[in-house]
Amino acid sequence: MELKHITSDITGEEMYYGTHPSGLGIYLIPKKGYSETYAIFGTRYGSVDSKFTVPGETEVTEVPDGIAHYLEHKMFDQPDGSNVFDKFAKYGGNANAFTSFNMTAYLFTATEHIEENLAALMDYVQSPYFTDETVQKEQGIIGQEIKMYDDSGNWKLFFNLLNCLYQNHPVKKEIAGTVESISHITPEYLYKCYNTFYNLSNMSIVVVGGFDVKSVLDVIEKGIKKNEPFTEEIKKIYEDEPDEIAKPYAEQSLSVASPLFMIGFKDTDTGYGGERLLKKYIEVSILLKMLFGKSSRLYKELYESGLINNTFQTDYTVQPSYAYSAIEGESRDSKAVYEAVKNEIERVKNEGLNEDDFNRIKKVMWGQYIRSHNDVEDYAGTFMQFLFMGADYFNYHDAYAKVTFDDVKRRFENHFVTERSALSVINPV
Amino acid sequence: METIRINDNITLYYIPMEKLKTTSIGVYLHRPLCEGEVSENAVLPYVLKRGCKAAKDSEAVAKYLEELYGASFGAGVSKSGNDQFIHLGFETISDRYAAGGEKLTAELTRLAMSVLFEPVSFTDEVVEIEKKNAVDRIMSELNDKRIYARNRCIEEMFAPSGYALSAYGTKDGVMKITAQSLKAHYDKIITSTPIDIYVCGSADAESIADAVKPYVQGMEFTKAKLPKSEMLTGGENVKRVTDRMEVTQGKLCLGFKTGIAPTDSDCYALQVMCCVFGGGAHSKLFSNVREKLSLCYYASSNLLGLNGAMLVNAGIEFENFDKAYNEIMAQLDAVKNGDISDWEYVSSVKALVNGFEGFKDNQFAMQTFHINQRLAGLTDDIDAVKEKIKAVTVDDIKRAAEKIELNTVYFLTGKEE
């Protein structure tokens, strides 16, 4: 097949891309002089997708929570009983996989034998093999993993916050499910999910690094197994989420060195992807740095009073169906930090944002974008994440250029609403 | 790579990495790891970070960095052999990506040099906060039982050598520091320490050197050498230590003497040996102790190459101590006997070669590689190291393994009922 080729004068990057007749999206980003190559083969399918309608069917399918992650684990079982990791190790490839709220992905990094590693990746992700026995075997292993997360301070801090912010949206549920929910998983459910979400028209492969475009494309094409692409979308069903948060506060005691806090703001301006989403992402990220970044008035006040240390950080998570920003760190008095955050928002509401700050921080977002091209893994991961939200990270500049001070002022009013904020705290035992 | 000597103590190394979109500046001050100054060195970089003539306080430093499209600046302290190095790391997008045509690398160099040579942050307020943060770092190492067990094992193996110390210093040592004493320490070491300035990315080494020189003009330097690492000695009798704490999982740490210095011809065989033994998912420890016998949650080995030692770490149930210990030793015997499968050998060589090759895409890894080579007294570049790894045979691995002797058995276990 022929791929389209684009280049960017601003970043000096180039990309070959296209959709294979099987439905698979192919994105090849060669980087001159690079030693490493990173390939990621992903599906638009994560832990939030437990309720959906398969194209061509009328009935809604509902499957046990935690199944996307369970399926990821079971993809490593091969019909011939071989070990997937052994194949990569033989060619010096470092293979892995992960499941997030909205994505499941299989990947490897290698500096040589790219074609052999890639062929192994293409093969095992398209070779499902689930039996009663192998599915049963995984219950104990994943059960242990769930228990391990139960002891993790940072993990609990995060999910307790999501359970404050969300009343119904499945993002509040643990990615791996519960010991109870995974006990209902069967080979039939796994095949149902596999045949739906691992249809190649719901998947993409992104390769970034020092590889040869022609031979990599050749391996991908040869590696594609028979697939009938869907002609319509898989309908994912999420319960209606009200604007109001579920509760303003959660705390738990766990074995941690210092008390941890995480403050969240629920974004209610959701329901879209594409460039509009990318632009919103830039706006909120700028605001988080203006209000709480290292040059901000609040950061200085909190750091100098010893209420926060350099673990303090902010982050904005965005998806078409939900979004929130988070401010986290360690503090001996989390409630005082939360009060200070709310007071600062009140103050900025009255006194307004500073345009010099905006101009300076907007440059930071540009630097962040340029820097994101350096590491093959970060770049491919970010590219795929935005791709699955219908946004074009390659042409980030288009959205970036449109962000004005007025946009950011409007976004501030809309996003930083203290009634839609919550505090999660983990105290040492 | 270009090397420019600024004076007896200060050297600028430029590693061109034009394929990346950033340029980084890494400043390293090499101090001998010793009781007398370990805590001062552990606090110093964090205080330096708080302000200088070019940006008087944290807020000014943050704004300075933001103006450079969000350049980064991190400070820290670490150890490599008996070298406790103070690190100031800076990174900016390279000049050609600056939308306004700004000279970002030059501006960042100015900040780096001002932080290093023109600090203004030795005040009581700043030093007290950074002392508290330094104590928090020490405490969090105590709280992470995996790191704690490893550090305790190293302590038992090496004391009273400086390598027994944590690079973070001690709580008592940190508490004794005052703004005055830290300033005095800074004044003493700034002119009597080997200082490396690494620049990686796209820059002009000569013009950076020219920018550095004015900062040291008129200062008097005392010529200094890189700290020398001490090889592990002794071990006629195996030292056995058990600590008891409120923990749910036991931590087993075995310390071995390798008897192989980084300049010995067997040092590459030793690296492959360690990888076969416990260096990843293809290793003997992983596939036997973890996968086959399910004795632990993790089990791995790693080298303290500059100090002639190897550690094995495993998290186990308390009652599995004997089983895990016996299995680890049995796997080491297997390596000593040359009982190494083709697949184990090939996977280990590939993993190491792949790892070294990957350094070439990472500026920080390139700096660390070069510093470690110098500390080891070696001059090979990455490609030469890769070739030497590839040339290692199963017989070489066997020979390196035969030199390895158990030195210390450390076990962190639960409180007795």
Explain what the structure shows.
By secondary structure, chain A is of the alpha+beta class. Chain A folds into two domains: 4-236, Cytochrome Bc1 Complex, Chain A, domain 1; 249-428, Metalloenzyme, LuxS/M16 peptidase-like (Cytochrome Bc1 Complex, Chain A, domain 1), CATH 3.30.830. Chain A has helices at residues 67-74, 84-90, 114-125, 132-150, 153-165, 179-182, 187-197, 213-223, 274-292, 297-304, 334-351, 355-371, 376-387, 396-402, 405-415; strands at residues 4-7, 14-19, 25-30, 37-43, 51-53, 61-62, 94-99, 104-110, 203-209, 235-236, 249-254, 260-266, 313-319, 322-330, 421-428. In chain A, α3 runs parallel beside α8, α9 crosses α14 and α9 packs across α15 (405-415). Chain A is globular and about 65 Å long. The model of chain A has no long low-confidence stretch (mean pLDDT 95). Chain B is an alpha+beta fold and 417 residues long. Chain B has two domains: 2-216, 2-Layer Sandwich (Cytochrome Bc1 Complex, Chain A, domain 1); 239-413, Cytochrome Bc1 Complex, Chain A, domain 1. In chain B, 44% of the residues lie in helices and 21% in strands. Chain B has helices at 38-48, 58-67, 104-117, 124-143, 145-158, 171-176, 179-190, 205-216, 267-278, 284-292, 321-336, 342-358, 363-376, 382-390, 394-402; strands spanning 2-5, 10-16, 22-32, 72-80, 83-93, 195-201, 239-244, 250-257, 296-304, 309-316, 405-413. In chain B, strands 1-2-6-3-5-4 form a six-stranded mixed sheet, sandwiched between helices. In chain B, α9 (267-278) packs across α15 (394-402), α10 packs antiparallel against α11 (321-336) and α12 runs antiparallel to α14 (382-390). The radius of gyration of chain B is 23 Å and the shape is globular. The chains are: A alpha+beta (429), B alpha+beta (417). Chains A and B meet through α2, α10 and α12 of A and α2, β5, α4 and α12 of B.
